Amino acid sequence: MNGKFQIELPVGECYVEIAKGFEYEPVRAKLMIEPGQSQLALPIHRRYALRKQGWVTADTHVHFLSPQTAWLEAQAEGLNLVNLLASQWGNLFTSICDITGDQSNVSRDDTIVWVGTENRQHLLGHISLLGGNGSPVFPMCASGPGESYFGDPAWSSLAEWADRCREREGVVIIPHFPNPYAEVVADIILGKVDGVEIRDFHSPTLNTYGVAEWYRFLNLGYRVAAVGGTDKMSAGMPVGGVRTYAQLGENEFTFANWGRAVRAGRTFTTSGPLIGLQVEDKSLGDHIELPRGGGTLELHAWAHSVHAFDRLQVVLNGQVIAEEKSENGTRAASIKTRVNVDRSSWLAARCLGSHKAWHCWPIHIAAHTSPIYIAVDARHQFNSTDAGYMLSLLEGGMTWLDTLAIPVDANRHATIRRVFENASEQLRQRINE
Description:
Elements: E1 12-18, E2 27-33, E3 55-62, H1 67-77, E4 81-89, E5 92-94, E6 112-121, E7 125-130, H2 158-167, E8 171-174, H3 183-189, E9 195-197, H4 209-219, E10 225-227, E11 243-247, H5 255-263, E12 267-270, E13 274-279, E14 287-290, E15 295-316, E16 319-341, E17 345-359, E18 361-369, E19 372-376, H6 384-403, H7 410-432
Parallel strand pairs: 3-4, 4-6, 8-9, 9-10, 14-19
Antiparallel strand pairs: 1-2, 3-11, 4-5, 6-7, 7-8, 11-12, 12-18, 13-15, 15-16, 15-17, 17-18, 17-19
């Protein structure tokens, strides 16, 4: 029952712990349980209230729950949106019967559950199709030993899935970014991706593979938002253990408005801290124009948390340019500084700590904002080294298609290959420019 549950406790002293998302103070109390006691009420204090400031919080990636259970767990964790994802796992299909093409009818009390799909291919990549209206995008998997039926051909590109999701007014996310990592490169270059899951907070430095690869795309001028999702597959992972905060402002909380906020980059991903960044009068996802030669910008970054963290950092094009440290851990930090920008760039804030929660695997207390973008002399941001790296990945994807993939027929093979060819051509044009 919502707000109540039943559990057996021993008579005498015992410890009770309560946690409810990232805006409530955790409770750890020593209690005395009396013989015959049948009721126990424990208060929990809400320290932060970002919902009142126009923020909603979501998990972009949940599996193996019923919609009702997803709603109940979301209420317990302070979540506003659960994206429950159906998929195929060889001969097993999960959550298919829960797809309605609309928000689930369990949605209420400021919590929405929407059943979408995670469409998967073992080498080209996985892609989460969230919130699409009407029929789901089939086939959900296109070859691969752990995805489609054994021996299935490469039915579809991820790009085709993304296009069909957007036709249904859905949101396209790359889960557990970047792997599997082949066509994902092409789809970001071609503008078919709304956000990438930045959730690999397994290092206290945030110098992780997923973060580094996301920085490469940002350094190439591709604007893709950071979102948070758990890939929850068991009770060992709480819904929203890593989550997305999206700024809706004055807009009503609907899936459509949440999707618009994600596409606009008004987001941060977090495993605990609540983080923000303002540059001049601009916020996350915004764009700043500077004349030739650039200029100096005032910035303010901040973080608050019910769990201790060690550092708040500001990064410019992936490099730390300002930092506030705490040797013993802190629950609040702020940076106010000026930064000189002489070329087209991006700025973001991140927060990291040595403390970690155990959610199936250790997750450090961390957060990362989506960027604020700066254009100097109206030029695109670009990095030739990262461009060469991406071209190599695109060539690898085409080589796999031509040599190891099982084609449906020549036309299907050519259609999927054209995604890589178009992305390569666009990237080479930018290199030439």
